[in-house]
């Protein structure tokens, strides 16, 4: 096997703000895994919250590059087991490699990932699109720019959260979901859940900090008027068990859990525990979006708007337009690189 590593800067359509900060250009790392005349694509994007920079992801992958040349590629799952031992401290890098391995395997065996996993492209949930934090008039303007999207996810964690949702509710009939990105207290969460339930909000994502006491999470789980979905609190496979009884569902992201290989196992675990399932994304190109979309037929909720937030990007794959997720075309993850990387 041979790995090619590319660093790419992707400009955003609009400045993106959440409770922790803002960005206007997203740095990402795109890898190509070559074996016997085929290649597969994978991606991991920079994230300050998860303390992975493009540089650190590239460094992790470079440490594996030489060894990888000696390995024989059989399945993505077999590669994941070996690679995980080397990349235990960098699941973002592991995720990029695992996506590429799934893409490569599908191309070699002339199947898409979702078909290999026994799924049909039926009853695929629609994706939300994200309105980021700004002044209320700016948020309304951004929302109006998303006319035609059936589901809106609103980033919260301000002193104006209730006024924001009231204003957005008055401006749109779309389904509203909210994501507090760890910014609320127990009391705020319960109070907001009651107000938001009356405004038709569907669920609340990650109200409390990931390291909030278990007792606090349990109070929120039991007293919230809306379902609570874990994002920052559900990163890796073992976290699914921990979320049972503290959250109503989990938001799986490939970069957090280390790729599609563990993501499919997390879905099994969540289904067996009766937890709702969702796939989310970072701001990333259609490389990572096409990989994450392979999970979509099995999910309750989808949030794969990452590439839709970009002004331009380096690949063509699964499209998410007005919430509709296009069926992956071609084999593997169904994505190809543009001739120029942005
Ligand atoms: Mg989130």
UniProtKB/TrEMBL annotation:
Belongs to the mandelate racemase/muconate lactonizing enzyme family. Keywords: Isomerase, Magnesium, Metal-binding. Mg(2+) binds at residues 179, 205, 231. Its cofactor is Mg(2+). Binds 1 Mg(2+) ion per subunit. Its EC number is 5.1.1.-. It comes from the Bacteria. Residues 136-227 form the Mandelate racemase/muconate lactonizing enzyme C-terminal domain. The active site is at 155 (proton acceptor), 253 (proton acceptor). This is Dipeptide epimerase. It comes from Bremerella alba. Gene3D superfamilies: Enolase-like C-terminal domain, Enolase-like, N-terminal domain. Pfam families: MR_MLE_C (PF13378), MR_MLE_N (PF02746). GO terms for molecular function: metal ion binding; racemase and epimerase activity, acting on amino acids and derivatives.
């Amino acid at each position: 096997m041979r790995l090619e590593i590319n660093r790419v800067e992707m400009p955003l359509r609009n400045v993106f703000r959440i409770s922790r900060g803002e960005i206007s250009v997203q740095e990402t790392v795109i890898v190509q895994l070559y074996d016997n005349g085929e290649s597969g694509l994978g991606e991991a994007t920079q994230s300050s919250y998860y303390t992975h920079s493009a540089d650190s992801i590239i460094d992790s992958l470079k440490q594996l590059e030489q060894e990888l040349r000696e390995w024989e590629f059989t399945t993505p799952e077999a590669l994941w087991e070996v690679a995980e031992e080397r990349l235990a401290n960098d699941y973002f890098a592991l995720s990029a490699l695992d996506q590429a391995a799934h893409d490569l395997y599908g191309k070699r065996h002339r199947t898409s990932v979702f078909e290999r996993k026994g799924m049909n492209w039926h009853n695929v949930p629609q994706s939300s699109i994200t309105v980021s934090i700004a002044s209320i008039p700016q948020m309304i303007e951004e929302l109006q720019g998303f006319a035609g999207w059936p589901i809106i996810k609103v980033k919260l964690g301000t002193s104006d959260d209730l006024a924001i949702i009231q204003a957005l509710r008055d401006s749109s009939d779309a389904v509203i979901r909210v994501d507090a990105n760890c910014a609320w207290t127990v009391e705020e969460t319960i109070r907001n859940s009651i107000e938001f339930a009356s405004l038709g909000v569907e669920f609340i994502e990650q109200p409390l900090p990931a390291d909030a006491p278990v007792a606090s999470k349990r109070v929120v789980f039991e007293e919230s008027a809306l379902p609570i979905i874990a994002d920052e609190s559900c990163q890796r496979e073992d976290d699914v068990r921990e979320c049972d009884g503290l959250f109503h569902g989990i938001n799986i992201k490939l970069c957090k859990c280390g790729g599609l290989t563990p993501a499919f196992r997390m879905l099994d675990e969540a289904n067996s525990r009766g937890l709702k399932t969702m796939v989310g994304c970072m701001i990333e190109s259609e490389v990572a979006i096409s990989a994450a979309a392979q999970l979509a037929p099995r999910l309750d909720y989808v949030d794969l708007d990452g590439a839709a937030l970009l002004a331009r990007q380096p690949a063509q794959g699964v499209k998410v337009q007005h919430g509709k997720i296009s069926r992956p075309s071609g084999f593997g993850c169904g994505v190809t690189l543009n001739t120029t990387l942005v």
